[in-house]
Amino acid sequence: MTDTTKQRLQDIHEIASKCDRCGSCLLVCPVYSVNSKEACGARGMVNAARALTKGGIAPESEILESVDYCLLCGACIDVCASKVKVPEVMLKVRQHLAHLSEKPFGFTEPEAKQFEQAFANLCERNAALEQPSVASDRKVAYFFGCQARLGSIDTTVATLKTLHSVADVELVNNECCGLPALTRGHVDEFVEALKQNIQLYESAETIVSDCACCSDTLKKAASYLSDDPEWNERAQAFSKKVVSLSEYLAKTGYVPQAQTEKITYHDPCHLGRLQGVKKAPRDLLKATGNYVELPSADACCGGPCFFPTDYPEASEALLEKKRANIEKSGAAVVATECYNCLAQLKKAAEKSGGKFKAVHISEVI
């Protein structure tokens, strides 16, 4: 066993051992709410992680199956008396057992081509936008995420149009933020993408991301290079530059457009809970003139990364709860600031039969 492996197992043990097994997490764990199996709840997953560090208690394949079911939403941390960092320990266990998984995490060949072509398309659309002169020296570099590239770029264009009103915007042909690889436990691939992005944004003053998954991953990226003397300081400087779209707009004093339709807001787990950004998007939407709060707004929609394809039944069950709450709010529009969440919410909107539509926050402010 290498020193790196020993240290990783020690880290897992230190975090998992803080759990006193009280079960408070089971009251809020989304996947436990739709499955009700101990191994599928936060407590069961932490116990599996603890078993891994002791060795010989459970087959590693079964441990991986347990921790792979975690949404990484962080809801358990909110109610945990010991503040056990469950998402962190789950990622470390996945990293330790990544060699057992055959689940894909990279792009297919058509997706890779679309990823690259999307940047050229965005540059063309951006050039056609009216770019008003900004009465300030603010400059931002936009981070163009994978889900934005692989879907319709109309939403991204709406983001750029908004940013152009408050700052000079630079487009960068960045790499993926690395979350897909990280989610699967492939940290080396994540770090490789991170280093490329650090170099690409070295001269940027501020990096704005309109996807919660990207902004959260990039803000925390420096921790993965903390032991690398060549990259540590550069990684820290990079992560400090990253802000979410709503954070940035709130700081600049951006004034949203008035809207007549009733709007509500879904908190992406990676933005509201994991970054603590809750007030900024709500303030922006309230300024549109017709905002209503969504019941259980921070409940996971079941859309993180690979979860909808890996566990479609659980994902659909969580989305059904979200759809019911959106309809209960009476809103005609539900907005969010995450492309994974947006894809899920659009499915819910379709199932609602036209009772509401789902949009990115940039499309209504």
UniProtKB/TrEMBL annotation:
It catalyses: glycolate + A = glyoxylate + AH2; (R)-lactate + A = pyruvate + AH2. This is Glycolate oxidase iron-sulfur subunit. Binds 2 [4Fe-4S] clusters. It comes from the Bacteria. It comes from Anaerosporomusa subterranea. It is an enzyme of class 1 (oxidoreductase). One of its GO terms (molecular function) is glycolate dehydrogenase activity. Residues 10-39 form the 4Fe-4S ferredoxin-type domain. Keywords: 4Fe-4S, Electron transport, Iron, Iron-sulfur, Metal-binding, Repeat, Transport. Its EC number is 1.1.99.14. Component of a complex that catalyzes the oxidation of glycolate to glyoxylate. The keyword Chloroplast does not apply.
